[in-house]
């Protein structure tokens, strides 16, 4: 069973996950293996035919009448085999001397985005990407019903450097029993901005960037993709809905279509511009089951992993970015994609 | 000139450093080069004889009478050749629409720890490590006099994965014109803890860990080295002074000796236990020139870089640590070092 422990100074929670525990010697292999990419389809647990290699599926999109955990699906969701947090159990809290801990309760799921081992998300048809978003929404909505959970993050790791341990294109979802500190910081920032300017910070960003254009990568009726003014990472890209809404599950049909078009275009531009960079994306929604929504404005953040956070970043939280967003936006705008 | 930009939601500052600017194509090379380690001494700018390859030195410890910027030194400090922040200029602030920016004023220095290209810090004699600490202290004390600076971080990157671009053992120092958000979070955490328990959080950690021992790696009269209760990273190690003090420059002679002994022992143990891991260390002191000292308790944090922060960590700030600190402390305690 994993455990949540609180740093009594920064008040950050950490997940101790000894299910994934390793001996010191394991770390040598891991580093040596970082450059290796598994190309062997026969042992990929996410490929059709290998369904028995994963925990039983939670949902899968497949033809009506097909058996669960057989092949024939086009999107498949299952529990992570090495979950950081576990669904079963009560959320027991306790203290150990001055320290706070709680049981590692939560959910950790994997969304396999396609049966096709070799196709990255950026190269999937828009119709398929839409199915993936439906799966995100279905799982998100279901997990929201569990009152133990206060936050759900949907995220994707693409490439070894971005933390992907399996090449076959997939996303993940982790539900946590508390609001993560980084989300609190955003909630407070949004609140402070609202009190000062009487408007939502993200709505203001949408307005300013849509007017100015110099940091805009792509734009349609419902979404704008920008390189944020204070980008922490080179080619960091945010996709922000123009309509103020605290959660992606509120999207209307047309908005889903436009999000898919924007996401595909941005991923393709990044792929072509910087040669298939490793990247993470996160869908940042408001907390759930906690009454803390405020003026939250959901958005999607894409972080290409091109630089290394070193001692200065770790010690201060201040990032050094060698590529101003105005420049990266220009590079990305100039990349032609045939969608 | 680099620029500081503020994220209007998280209120984090980012350093835009176009002096280090790169085109998209540069990032391909960089990734390919990540595994390559420069072994060619003749072109190392930190080796004796190559002093002209760096900006002129700020201080160097060398025999009296020897010429500046010649060889013969044992510790040498110079401005970083590609500084993230620049010493020259006024701290001009301005607004661009809803965004805040200021000129990239600060200091960025390099401390070359030894003339010997091939010897890592862990293998230097204690007498030499003491000289390095003197150099840290001398530069820190001098930069404190500049009222534009509100924070100074001394840090070290060891190994490519930890962000070291030059193999020759060195540390760095960056002075910033504001208090970094991560330091604010600690200041507030310490304050909140103090209000609640009427004691310094770090003093309490020292007491609890010194009593309990299960997370202790090493201990002497003045310092304790522990794996923190809520370690974010496997084998994360903190060295905390037992005497409450807000800055490392207040150390007495005996304390410096004991810090050197503790640091050397911990670095050697990490090197032997996990096969010379890439690591960062940071010396976390209270802010300067800002009246914000409160109950700050300085300390040194060592972060081995063994895992990859992926989408979940980026989106929530919650780390997943596969090695509980009680286990890593046991491994490290059992490593015998002959010092």
Short précis:
The structure is a homodimer of 339-residue chains. With 339 residues, chain A is α+β, with helices and mostly antiparallel strands.
What key phrases describe this protein's structure?
homodimer, 10-stranded antiparallel β-sheet, alpha+beta, 15 strands, 7 helices, HIT family, subunit A, 339 residues
Describe the protein's architecture and organization.
The structure is a homodimer of 339-residue chains. Chain A has 339 residues and is of the alpha+beta class. Chain A has two domains: 3-31 and 39-180, HIT family, subunit A (2-Layer Sandwich); 182-334, 2-Layer Sandwich (HIT family, subunit A), CATH 3.30.428. Chain A is 27% helix and 22% strand. Chain A has helices at 26-33, 126-144, 181-197, 201-212, 253-273, 311-316, 325-334; strands spanning 3-6, 13-16, 59-61, 75-79, 93-96, 99-103, 107-112, 151-158, 170-176, 216-219, 223-226, 237-241, 279-284, 299-304, 319-321. In chain A, the strands form two sheets. The first copy, chain A, has a ten-stranded antiparallel beta sheet, with helices on both faces. A four-stranded antiparallel beta sheet of chain A has the order 2-1-6-5, with no helix packed on it. In chain A, β10 (216-219) and β11 form a beta hairpin. In chain A, α2 crosses α5. The longest helix of chain A has 21 residues, at 253-273. Chain A starts with a strand and ends in a 5-residue tail after the last helix. Residues 32-38 of chain A have low confidence and may be disordered. At the A-B interface, β1, β2, α1, β8 and β9 of A face β1, β2, α1, β8 and β9 of B. β15 (319-321) of chain A pairs parallel with β2 of chain B.
